[in-house]
């Protein structure tokens, strides 16, 4: 069972601060390296629309964690300014080390809460969130806040875990995700609670049609739902309706 509200936010911060040091390795192992490709696809969708005036653009990655999606945004649009925001100072510390090693990257990191983004309205050409939205106790409030800070006509791109549509693969994947992964992850990382949380929060996430309806309610249109890697993750894309 996942606690709700401020208690969930506290739990999430504790968990991610604890696993920051082995988060990237666990990601690569659990996804057999696919996670970097998912983030590249997300970054491409967020940056394909040319910002006005020939600018390289300004992009925000919410719940940036160790910064892989923020760095992918910078690579997808060289010269763009990228901001990565996260609750966990420990995750941001790992992101800062990676940004320092990444040449030509204009990434700044901000500690903050997705529900209270410290930016004015329409401040970014695109906003992304990768494997972060399911950690937000109120999905609609999180979507509204991301929509507020993207410019009209800009995209909000959400990458999230997802249940495969094919019933056979869904059953096999369910076995891996709900039984094998929680047993394997503590052996790799020494941390059982965190990976049980990954399973519980994925089971708790609304089905695609319901989530798309929330995106529409938050002020996004031209909605796209794109399952990736046999539907084990999905990309949700929305465009802020111009006023
Ligand atoms: C599963 S990690 C995803 C990290 C990264 N986006 C990625 O693609 O690997 C979830 C991240 O969401 C952050 N987070 C959870 N709730 C948040 C909130 N309310 N505001 C900002 N960050 C939050 C956590 O600290 C954690 O770093």
Q: Give a count of the beta strands, DSSP E runs of length 2 or more.
A: 7
| Small molecules bound in the structure, each named once | S-adenosylmethionine
Mean pLDDT across every amino acid position: 91
Q: Radius of gyration over alpha carbons?
A: 17 Å
According to CATH, what is the class of the domain at 31-165 and 207-240?
Alpha Beta
| Arrangement of strands in the largest sheet | 3-2-1-4-5-7-6
What is the first-to-last residue Cα distance? Answer: 40 Å
Approximately how much beta-strand content do the residues carry? 15-25%
Instruction: Indicate the structural class.
Output: alpha/beta
Tell me, briefly, the overall form: globular
Helical run tally: 8
CATH superfamily of the domain at 31-165 and 207-240: Vaccinia Virus protein VP39
Tell me which CATH architecture of the domain at 31-165 and 207-240 applies here: 3-Layer(aba) Sandwich
CATH topology label of the domain at 31-165 and 207-240: Rossmann fold
Name the helicity range.
40-55%
Main beta sheet: 7 strands, mixed
* Element-by-element helix/strand order: HHEHEHEEHEHHHEE
Low-confidence stretches: none
What topology does this entry show?
Layout: H1 6-31, H2 34-47, E1 58-62, H3 68-76, E2 81-86, H4 89-101, E3 106-111, E4 124-130, H5 139-149, E5 150-161, H6 167-189, H7 192-203, H8 208-217, E6 220-228, E7 233-240
Parallel strand pairs: 1-2, 1-4, 2-3, 4-5
Antiparallel strand pairs: 5-7, 6-7
Bound molecules: S-adenosylmethionine.
